[in-house]
Structure prediction request, 138 residues.
Amino acid sequence: MRSNDNVRRRLSSRRAGGRNPGTHLFQQEGEYWTIAYGGAMLRLRDTKGLHCLARLLGRPGERIPAPLLLSGSVEAGGEIIADAERARVAVTKRIKAALKKIQEHHPSLGHHLTTCIKTGHFCTYTPDPAQLAAWVLR
Prediction:
């Protein structure tokens, strides 16, 4: 739990200093992820969906092709359309499962991510411009 104390201290000092009040954390630590948002923290067991979420959070506003979120690319030739469709289905399933787990433990973060993340052949994280938020990803 020492790691959690360090994370809390870092986030608290950022808020207290007023430099970046909208800083949130999405950090993998071995087999678990530490996620801090809105003053609350949770730890979740590692899943492929959390890796997809981390990639989206690190590139807000970008349209990322589903195959890239699977840590691979669709090879030229063969059944490109079928491969792209399989990637879309797999990524959507992984992200939705991760969002459901987050929602169970942190409803406000679950709501934020559910409303700001769109899945499909291209996936995006598009936060509300009125909410200043910066994600620290590790």
